[in-house]
Description:
The protein is an alpha/beta fold. The chain has eight helices and five strands. β2 and β3 form a beta hairpin. The chain starts with a helix and ends with a helix. Ligand 1 binds next to α1.
Amino acid sequence: MSDTMVLTNAFLGGMNNCGQFKIEVIDVIKKNINPCIGCFKCWEKGDGKCIQEDDQNDILEKYVGADIIILSFPLYCYAMPSHLKAVLDRTIPLIQQKMVEVDGAVCHVPLVDFSRKKTIVISGCGFPDWDGNFEGLRIMSKNSFRDPIMIFVPETPMMNASEAKCVAKPLADKFVVAGKEFAENYTLSDDTIKALETPMIPKEDYLAVINRT
Ligand SMILES: Cc1cc2nc3c(=O)[nH]c(=O)nc-3n(C[C@H](O)[C@H](O)[C@H](O)COP(=O)(O)O)c2cc1C
């Protein structure tokens, strides 16, 4: 299983331990999603759909219907992998050409009501913790979603390394507890996020392990 998905599954397990949520996992790599071609036909028609005939319109329907969206992905080149980026680009049928200024930022007027939708962004990465690794993703997430919960985890290849079980399992357990906290409060405290993002081992040790293999 993907390193990031180990953590996301732990989070989902904690979140849904009473079975109160209906969870659907969409593996976008297995979907047929073309890139956005920038035709803006969606804005001309204003029906919330893309004119391209692939799997995206099904995803849009689910996206609109969901109360909570969890985007789970590994960091690729300081950003979101291209498969998922294509899905995100092609959510533009859900906004309108019209723009408004809100709290100093300019955004498009939504076509559907996003005001109660909660977005959680979980991303794992191969580098140890360093300022800047997740900065691009942080800015993109803040600008793309309303008040997203962001959990950015360094050193995630350790989640699938048998020698690292002694530090990987405690981190997965923290994700279970965080999932429960989210289910109760619909938010996560800063302390919880900090605990999830704390490197499993010090940077120097991680680099030594990686460079030995
Ligand atoms: C194409 C590609 C680009 C990557 N770019 C980065 C990067 O910019 N920063 C980073 O820390 N790790 C990067 N990585 C490493 C992955 O984020 C890391 O291996 C992660 O644990 C993979 O998680 P997964 O098993 O969920 O796919 C990259 C990996 C690939 C394949």
